[in-house]
Amino acid sequence: MGHPPSHTKRNTKTKASAEVAMSHSHVTARMRESTIAGMDPTYPADTEAYRQQMKDFLDEHLPSDWGGIGSLPSDDRHHWQKQWRETLSEANLLAPHWPAEYGGAGLSRIEHVILNEEFAHRGVPTMGSNDGFSIGMVGNTILHWGTEEQKQHYLPRILDGSDVWCQGYSEPNSGSDLANLGCKAELDGDEWILNGQKIWTSAGMHANMIFTLCRTDPEVPKHKGISFMLVPMDQPGIEVRPITHIGMKDHFCEVFYSDARCPKDNVLGGVNNGWAVANTLLGFERGIRATVLALPFRAELDSFIELAQRYGKTDDPTTRQKIARFHTAVEILRWQGYQALTRNLRGEAPGPESSITKLQWSKYHQQVTEAAMELAGADATIGFGQGDVSGLGAPPIGTPNTVPNWIDSFLIARPGTIYAGTSEVQKNIIGERVLGLPKEPRADGGSWKESQSAYS
Ligand SMILES: Cc1cc2nc3c(=O)[nH]c(=O)nc-3n(C[C@H](O)[C@H](O)[C@H](O)COP(=O)(O)OP(=O)(O)OC[C@H]3O[C@@H](n4cnc5c(N)ncnc54)[C@H](O)[C@@H]3O)c2cc1C
Q1: Mutate to test the pocket of ligand 1, among 176, 178, 358 (most ligand atoms within 8 A of CB)
Q2: Hey, which of 170, 279, 359 would you mutate to test ligand 1's pocket, going by the most ligand atoms within 8 Å of its Cβ?
Q3: Do residues 207 and 118 share a domain?
Q4: In a domain, 452, yes or no
């Protein structure tokens, strides 16, 4: 195995990737002339002004030598992202799609998509850390299901950073079968008293609020006795214990509720209506971010090609075949993004095709990072990289193309096929809703309480 020369930035175009990029721009041009499977990937001409506005905003606020958030030393990123959040807040761009009365900019869907695209191209986050939960999930859900009082109270607190949220859905005995959850909430005067446990709570150690699915009626079938509660975490009844994951980072935690208290009015969408609220939350943002999903994977693939060059493997037929397969996978992801966008702009809910995309990117990411480990051989047995701030997909744009950073990505790719619905669950959805195969047998017609005693 050859020794790699100096490290260069990921996302640097190599000759091989430049050829690929050229061929894919030809494909893009050809595709633009037609409408594929009900998809129109061209943008209306009158949106160009907004695109230019976003480009100008980024030029004005980013340093001239900006190379993407991944290029910052890991110790500086958190601080930078905090400051960036303030910049976005001042420009009214933190929750740009929210109505102005709740602190948003009232952007149209297509403007929001363009904002996401321009930020993604420059490797800049559109939010602060935890905002995926605070704005993307619970904020949007409060906007949809909340009472006027809940909206007036919680939405400004999210934007000014007073409340930082995490997601309390999964439990040790309910992950894929989420509706089986057992965290109990009982009404005591003006408060709910919560007892139970949540697990795999991402970034729970940075949050002061947790949206919690609770069992409020055990006597009815499992989907019908659940409520969605807005629970303060700064109280003696809540204990947070971090879990160290395979990448050696404190990504998530366990949350224990021992007579934890939650005000009576902190139920979102009505008592025992939590299953509908929970599903609304899961559907948010999928369409809006669909067209930027492929971008970091493209940058990562460019880095893979460069790594193959560094290790002298670009003439190796097996490596070449892999590059061709990976290129195809990233292109499919990109076109699926346009398909999802088209649905979103038509006002349609994300369909079962989002399961196809999830299945595909999570598997692809494992394949490309495994292939990088194979290229690096014995070099891939040493150390960890600088850590990832963008979640669990491809590393942020600008991440240095080092073997330790590939080790990080390889490890981070493992849970990709588990969180946000496992691959097996996605296949069930595709089988039942896309292919029309017979449904899985369901054995849960009776009350949730009876089903628990049947298993005990
Ligand atoms: C990195 C990461 C971050 C996460 N963050 C959060 C978070 O912030 N908040 C939160 O609430 N949860 C979070 N989760 C939890 C996540 O939602 C669950 O891990 C996931 O839903 C799977 O549940 P489980 O782990 O209990 O596995 P199980 O559901 O017990 O599954 C075990 C195995 O059985 C398979 N299986 C289960 N049911 C079926 C079926 N019907 N047909 C075929 N196969 C099946 C699964 O595919 C899997 O292989 C996170 C998980 C990870 C890995």
Answers
A1: 176
A2: 170
A3: no
A4: no
Bridge partners (DSSP) of residue 260 are: 194
Catalytic residue among 285, 300, 306, 353: 285
CB 225, CB 448: distance < 8 Å: yes
Token pair 């989420």 is found at 178
Residue whose CA lies nearest to ligand 1 atom number 48? 422
Residue 128's alpha-carbon distances to 125, 201, 337, in angstroms, are 7, 18, 23
Task: Determine if ligand 1 sits within 6 Å of the CB of residue 425.
Answer: yes
Q: How many whole angstroms from 359 Cα to the centroid of ligand 1? A: 14
pLDDT category of residue 385 using cuts at 50, 70 and 90: low
Q: What is the mean pLDDT of residues 106-132?
A: 92
Q: Whose CA is nearest to atom 47 of ligand 1?
A: 424
Assess whether 239 and 345 both reside in one domain.
no
419 lines ligand 1 (CB under 6 A): yes
The per-residue pLDDT for 36 is: 43
Q: Cα(396)–Cα(295) distance, rounded to whole angstroms?
A: 10
Q: What is the CATH number of the domain that holds 212?
A: 2.40.110.10
CB of 426 shorter than 6 A to ligand 1: no
Closest ligand 1 atom to 178 CA: 21
Domain of residue 94, residue span: 83-147+153-159
Q: Which of 108, 138, 159 is the last residue of a domain?
A: 159
The reported pTM is 0.89
Catalytic residue flag (residue 285): yes
Does residue 136 share a domain with residue 36?
A: no
Lowest-confidence region among 100-114, 257-271, 306-320: 100-114
Does ligand 1 come within 6 angstroms of the Cβ of 176? yes
Task: With respect to residue 6, please indicate whether it lies within any of the assigned structural domains.
Answer: no
Q: Whose CA is nearest to atom 30 of ligand 1?
A: 175
* Distance between CA atoms of residues 406 and 395, nearest Å: 9
